[in-house]
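Data deposition worksheet. Section B asks for the primary sequence of the deposited chain exactly as it was used as input, without tags or linkers unless they were present during the calculation. Section C holds the resulting structure in token form. Section D is free text for depositor observations; keep each observation to a single sentence. Incomplete worksheets are returned to the depositor.
Section A, Depositor: J.P.
Section B:
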Amino acid sequence: CAGANLKARANEDTVLQQGASTALRRNSLRFTVHQVAQALQLLDKPYIAAINGAAVGAGMDMASMADIRIASDQARFSMSYVNVGLIPGDGGSWLLPRLVGLQKALELLWSGELFGADQALEIGYVLRVVPHEELMDEVRKYAKKLASGPPIAIQLTKRLVYRGLNSTFMEGLDAAQAAMTIVQSTEDSKEGPRAFVEKRPPQFKGL
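Section C:
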């Protein structure tokens, strides 16, 4: 995803909306693409992004919303907003520092540079890079591995991690205690140890 088509929309001015009021420009994001970003932030299931080409501008914002990013060796990335006089409009300035650190995030946001999959891996933006023709097979394999795990434990673990980013250590411990109480009441918490003793793969049901 390369974000907005600036050439196609240049005459319509639907991207910059320079003739519109401040309220209209603000709400143009709030009631459109921001609804997608908000929905993804509330998604309890693992969200995996398979990146097979350009993730530029809003496209990189969308990739940054994922829990896990796996890239083709042909993928390329850019926070290109600055190149057209804009700022990251879809959450990139909030997401990127949490993924690659403050200093690197600022460099990418200020420069708008285009970089490849290898650099994305080096800075920790993607989990792994695979040959282009193997991308979807690798992503499906990874997704199936996650899907075979205990759904409730995976869901609550995701909540703990994300909420922990904005909480104290003691608050994190309290949240972990509450989550542990929930998972200990599930059938999956019995199935795991039972499968270990019986030397077989566990069959988690989300119960």
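Section D:
The first helix runs from residue 6 to 9.
The chain has a mean pLDDT of 89.
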